Amino acid sequence: MPARFVTIATAGALLLPVSALAYTVTSGAPAVGEAPSRFEQADFPASRFEPRQKESTAATTSGGSSFALKNMDDVTRLKTEAMLSALGARQEGNRIIVALPADVLFDFDKSNIRPDARAVLGQLSGILLAMPKSPVGITGHTDAKGSDDYNQRLSEQRATSVRKWLAQLGVADRRMTTSGKGEAEPVVPNQNADGSDDPGGRQKNRRVEFAIGTGD
């Protein structure tokens, strides 16, 4: 699927690929391990938009950014802020967290990067290259389908694949660390209150998280 781009109207026009959040995922037939998914690109009414003002209690800089971006000129800060917002990033203490859906990055039960995920990772690499002194922790997460051991290995392999791809895009490998949490840290329950399977919840739990900066 060819990458689509949107233009963010800022002081200088910035061409960005459609973010990972621009994809909807629907579950297919049940299977061992992570549930398979089918991808459809979300329908956008227009290709030009203004970034929304984020409602956040996150730390702000003197420039009014929603993110603690340091040692940047105004143009770079504005562009980086726009790219972080497009990826749905959030500020947690001194770290910026970006969570990308695993279903956008990988095919079912695989750890190889999907060809159509390269635009999203290219956008992320642009952010990381604008913050060259910030360490980056890459953590893979799965849903609860399959065994604990299987999901742990898959989450580790996916984090490693992303690290290698970002290194190919110019991000210094020494800045990056990887880990896998398997199914241990879901963001929402994998089951409904009645104990039945919740495909939507499992989809949200399948993700790769990037922690940019230190936790100090």
TrEMBL record:
Residues 173-216 are annotated as: Disordered. Residues 1-22 form the signal peptide. PROSITE patterns: OMPA_1, OMPA_2. The keyword S-adenosyl-L-methionine does not apply. One of its GO terms (cellular component) is cell outer membrane. CDD domains: OmpA_C-like (cd07185). This is OmpA family protein.
